[in-house]
Design a protein that fits this description.
The protein is mainly alpha-helical. Helix 4 (55-70) packs antiparallel against helix 5. 20% of the residues are buried. It is built from five helices and no strands. It has helices at 3-14, 19-32, 36-51, 55-70, 77-91.
Length: 95
């Protein structure tokens, strides 16, 4: 079931993009789908992309990510909040 998604993720990973553009592409895929499993897959890919960035870039990318998620009004607010929460649990340090 996830093989197609993994192929798409691998193709995107091989595409030369700067971190902000790659994050935008990953989030767009997460926000364009209606299936929860697909959304979680792409949010995890976005989290992996964020964690791979240097600490000094991560904060700005994180802010761009949650603004992008919350500006997608075709998705109900509860789903946007859940997406931001999921991403935060994977990226934002608790210490």
């Amino acid at each position: 079931m996830l093989c197609g998604l993994q192929r798409d993720r691998d193709t995107l990973a091989q595409t030369p993009l700067d971190p902000r553009e790659r994050l935008k592409a990953l989030l767009q895929r997460a926000l364009d789908t209606d299936r929860r499993i697909d959304r979680l897959f792409w949010l995890q890919a976005a989290a992996d992309n964020l964690r791979a960035q240097p600490d000094e870039q991560r904060s700005g990318l994180w802010r761009a990510a949650y603004r992008r998620i919350h500006s997608t009004f075709r998705i109900p607010y509860a789903d946007r909040a859940a997406a931001v929460h999921y991403l935060a649990t994977k990226v934002v340090p608790l210490d």
